[in-house]
Amino acid sequence: MRRSTSVALGLVLGLLSMTEAGRAAPFHCPTMGGDFVFGQEANFNTLDQMTSSATSTRNIAMNIYESLMTRDENGDPILELADSMTESADHLTYTFSLRSGVLFHNGKPMTSADIAASFDRYSKVGNQRGTLNNVARWEAPDPATFVITMKAAQPTFIEVLSAFSVPIVIIPAEFRDVPAQQLTRPIGTGPFQLMESVPGSFVKLRRFDGYKPNTRYETRTGFGGYKQACLDTVTFRIVTEGGARVAGLKSGELQGVEDIPAKSLPELKADPAITILPLPNWWIQTANPNTAAPPTDNLLFRKAVQAALDMDEIMEAASDGHYALNVGFQYPNQPGYTDAGKETYNIKRPELAKQYLVQAGYRGEPLILLTNNDYPSMYNSALVVQQQLQAVGINAQMKVVDWPTSVQMAQKSDMGWNFHFTGWGTQPALGPLATMQYLADPNATYRPKDGMGDPELIAAWADMNTMPTAPGRQAAFARMQKLALERVYALPFGSLPKMQAVRSNVSGFVPFRIPRMANVSMTQ
Predict the structure, then answer these.
(1) Helix (H, G, I), strand (E, B), or coil: what is residue 94?
(2) Kindly report the CA angle at 125 between 124 and 130, in degrees rounded to 5?
(3) pLDDT tens for each residue of 127-137
(4) Are 78 and 16 contacting, i.e. CB atoms less than 8 angstroms apart?
(5) Where in the chain is the domain with CATH 3.40.190.10?
(6) Which CATH entry fits the domain spanning 281-496: 3.40.50.360, 3.30.700.20, 3.40.309.10, 3.10.105.10?
(7) Are strands 366-372 and 419-424 parallel, antiparallel or unpaired?
(8) Can you give the pLDDT at residue 13?
């Protein structure tokens, strides 16, 4: 999947205004029925998609919800619940005409009032509500029309609005005031609806018979397009141990899995009942510092940590040898890639680290590495980081919890942690804007002690969004990445692939940032 800051709005609008002329027949399910059991490697902390950036939430919730806009297979913005979009000549107003006949899972017809209510809620509790910082207002002048008015022209607004890292999913208007992460019975407009949810065990979805496919398209593309639920049900089963996922896939207890351990690949490739599906750039293994708590509130201390690290050792442990060193926050094959800040990466200078520790006045205070036991790559990278930091005299200690708990703890700076180990995957795949929003207020990964953001970082972020030319926006991204690395607001270790797999009786399951269950079918 590719994105860059050079998306041309004219091209986007051309994509959005496709006609029906010359279309082939839309997708038709080759078979109907069955329960597709998908082995998910990590537990989820919530199904309230507006409030969570966790992959484990997105995997499930994005088969329930839909958005005004999304991205296609190539990462370009497309309409989803909107039928058309018109941009005013002054670039300050976007008018969306909604698709007709769209129903929520409770049978209620979707109208612009629901769109407005969803934007209202997202502006209050959305994980990336900074998306709406430059929006002056939104209105629903009639049931089929939704209008967004900007404070100032923003060339990147459609790119930001269509990103699905933490999208503005559309919910019934009556849920406008539900507090963050309290939307426990999600109702959306997607092809599947919630049946049952048991955190730590499974989530079961069933076909929504009232779903109306988007006839603008012939088949699914990205997370949009023409979607149909061919399966009766989909069960996301939480299977945190890699060997158990392999065993379940081999026995047929699981029809698909989200991650295959590297050591199991030769055996599974030789099994004709199993199809391996690689995703080359899955995520950038990362640790985020708590800049509001000592000792990581001290830049010199953070630079000591940065200088001590050997990224090859960390990534070897994280990925069983299947990795690529990667400077910064984009994959090297992406148009938006930059190596700005490369002088800070993979330094491997223990003596320099010790010098920084002296300058920082470090006196052996504990450094808490917050990791989890659901994602082995995160746990193993934390283990190696701990060893490397102890070698230079840092009192590094591990705090190991489950993934949902680590996500909840990382959202607060007073929860007794200094580095949170995670992976940035969907965001880099969507492009520089989606990635660097992690470092932009509100709800940024970087949370300074005084609550005030870094002025230079804020200025670079503003330029990424508002510079009138693509080269200008790309230069702003390079500047922001360099600042983030120099000031150690994030520690990217390297990138790793992911190997998904399905049983060979499964058709239509194509690797993507999110497991798309629409247009997937099974022979019995």
Answers:
(1) strand
(2) 75
(3) 999 899 999 99
(4) yes
(5) 27-238+504-522
(6) 3.10.105.10
(7) parallel
(8) 43
Residue 441 pLDDT level (bands cut at 50, 70, 90): confident
Residues facing residue 204 across a β-bridge: 196, 235
- pLDDT surpassing 90 at residue 297: yes
- CATH code 3.10.105.10 region(s) in the chain: 281-496
Q: 72-76 long-range CB contacts below 8 Å, 24 or more apart?
A: 72/15, 72/221, 72/222, 72/224, 72/225, 73/1, 73/221, 73/222, 74/1, 74/2, 74/222, 75/1, 75/2, 75/3, 75/222, 75/429, 75/430, 75/431, 76/7, 76/11, 76/12, 76/15
Show Cβ contacts of residue 460 under 8 Å, excluding neighbours closer than 6 positions.
476, 477, 479, 480, 483
Cα–Cα distances in angstroms (integers) from residue 173 to residues 5, 166, 199, 293, in the given order: 33, 19, 26, 39
Token pair listed for 44 = 């989820």
**CA triple 5-130-514, angle to 5 deg:** 65
- pLDDT of residue 511 exceeding 70, the answer is yes
Among the listed ranges 102-106, 243-247, 428-432, 473-477, which one has the minimum average pLDDT value? 428-432
CATH architecture of the domain 27-238+504-522 equals 3-Layer(aba) Sandwich (3.40)
446 has pLDDT over 80: no
Given a contact cutoff of 8 angstroms between Cβ atoms, the answer to whether 240 and 491 are in contact is: no
**Mean pLDDT over residues 409-434, rounded?**
93
The three-class DSSP label of residue 282 is strand
**How far apart (Å, rounded) are the C-alpha atoms in residues 468 and 484?**
23
- Look-up: residue for tokens 């006609």? 19
Share of the chain above pLDDT 90, in %: 85
Quote the tokens at residue 190. 């997607």
Strand-pair partners of 169: 67
At 208, the pLDDT band (50, 70, 90 cuts) reads very high
Other Cβ atoms less than 10 A from the Cβ of 280: the count is 13
Candidates 496, 154, 481, 439; CA nearest to 344 is: 481
- pLDDT (0 to 100) of residue 442: 60
The CB-side HSE value for 30 (13 A sphere, CA atoms) comes to 9
Tokens, residue 479:
């500047």
pLDDT tens, residue by residue, 274-288: 999 999 899 999 999
